Q: What sequence folds into this?
C-alpha cells in the first residue's frame, strides 16, 4: 500500500507540475495510503484478482498468476486512489473527469509495474512475519 501511495504521489506531481515538492509528496502519500487502506477494507481486491487469475488458468505462485491477479488488484486500487486524489485536489468541478483521465493511464501502468515488483517482496515479508 505504501509503495503504491508513494509512487502515485510522485507520478501525479510530475505530471501536473513537472516537479516533486517534498511536503506535497508526504501529504499525497498519506492521502493515498489512507484511501488505499479504506478501499481494502471495503473491496476484496485480492480475492477478485486471485479469482480472475484462476479463471484465466494461471497456476498459483507463478509470474503469470501474479501478472493477472495484479492487473485486477492494481485496477481497483489505482482507479479508486487516483480518482479520489484528483477529487481532493481539483474538487467537484466540470473538469474533474478530464483531469482524472489526464493522469489515469500513466498512473495505472506505473502502478501496475510497481505492484508486480513489490508483490514477491511483500509475500516473502508476510511469510516471515507469520512464521514467527
A:
Amino acid at each position: 500500500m505504501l509503495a503504491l501511495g508513494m509512487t502515485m504521489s510522485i507520478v501525479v506531481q510530475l505530471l501536473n507540475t513537472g516537479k516533486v515538492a517534498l511536503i506535497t509528496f508526504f501529504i499525497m502519500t498519506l492521502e493515498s495510503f489512507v484511501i488505499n487502506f479504506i478501499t481494502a477494507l471495503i473491496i476484496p481486491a485480492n480475492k477478485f484478482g486471485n479469482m480472475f487469475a484462476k479463471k484465466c488458468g494461471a497456476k498459483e505462485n507463478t509470474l503469470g498468476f501474479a501478472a493477472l491477479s495484479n492487473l485486477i488488484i492494481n485496477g481497483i486500487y489505482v482507479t479508486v486512489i487516483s480518482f479520489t486524489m484528483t477529487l481532493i485536489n481539483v474538487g467537484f468541478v466540470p473538469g474533474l473527469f478530464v483531469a482524472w483521465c489526464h493522469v489515469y493511464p500513466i498512473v495505472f501502468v506505473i502502478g501496475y509495474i510497481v505492484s508486480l515488483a513489490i508483490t514477491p517482496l511483500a509475500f516473502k515479508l508476510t511469510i516471515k512475519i507469520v512464521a514467527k
Remarks:
- Residues 32 and 111 are 12 Å apart (CA to CA).
